[in-house]
Amino acid sequence: MKRFRVALADDHPLILVAVKGLIEEDSKYQVVGEARSSGELVELLRRERVDVVVTDFNMPGDMVYGDGIKFIDYLVRNFPDIRILVLTMISNRAILDALYRLGVGGVICKSATSRQLLAALNAMVHGRGRIFPAPAAGGSKWGTRGRLAELSVKEHEVVRLFVSGMRGHEIARLLNRSDKTISAQKAAAKRRLGVGSDQELLSYLREWHFLD
């Protein structure tokens, strides 16, 4: 029986431990390495033979590779033979669509059970990538009530980096955009979310556990 070699990436050590334990319940998978940043994952993939990457979407702080859409795009382009499963709490349809356009094998919610995670992995390695389980709807904090699903891909990237502690000029440099563009995209996000100031934006995003 073929064993699939898996690399894990998440900036939260406890999540790495939990995901590793869930994946290794199935003897088809062998976790060959773990990373806590985008840079560590790239080094791992260059060093080890890997079939599958299970990576968090949010790993801010790496000014070389970034995270989110920028980093996933880098992985897809530079490691085309590796299947990528994105682990996230994001339910923003624009973000999910963008991930599939980039070519990821699947997206799974962080709240998934071990059974669901293994089902998603099995589907992906057999060429049946999907979002599993489906994003929450209605009254969920990740549904439409939170209005987070209304942000565009670029607005989502900007506010995600903003709430992680980055300043406007740092975000502009990381995303290769002008300071003026970043300011405009943050302002557009605030209008969509119904907040008036940067402090209100931070409070809103932290209340809804935006980086979880």
From TrEMBL:
Listed A to Z, the keywords are: DNA-binding, Phosphoprotein
Supply the Gene3D superfamilies for this chain: 3.40.50.2300, Winged helix-like DNA-binding domain superfamily/Winged helix DNA-binding domain
Transmembrane domains' residue ranges: none
Domain named HTH luxR-type is located at 144-209
The Response regulatory domain sits at 5-125
Name residues in a coiled coil.
Answer: none
4-aspartylphosphate, modified sites: 56
Superkingdom classification of source:
Bacteria
| PANTHER family to which the protein is assigned, alphabetical | TRANSCRIPTIONAL REGULATORY PROTEIN RCSB, TWO-COMPONENT RESPONSE REGULATOR
Question: What is the name listed in the Swiss-Prot or TrEMBL entry for this protein?
Answer: Response regulator
Q: Which organism is it from?
A: Pseudomonas schmalbachii
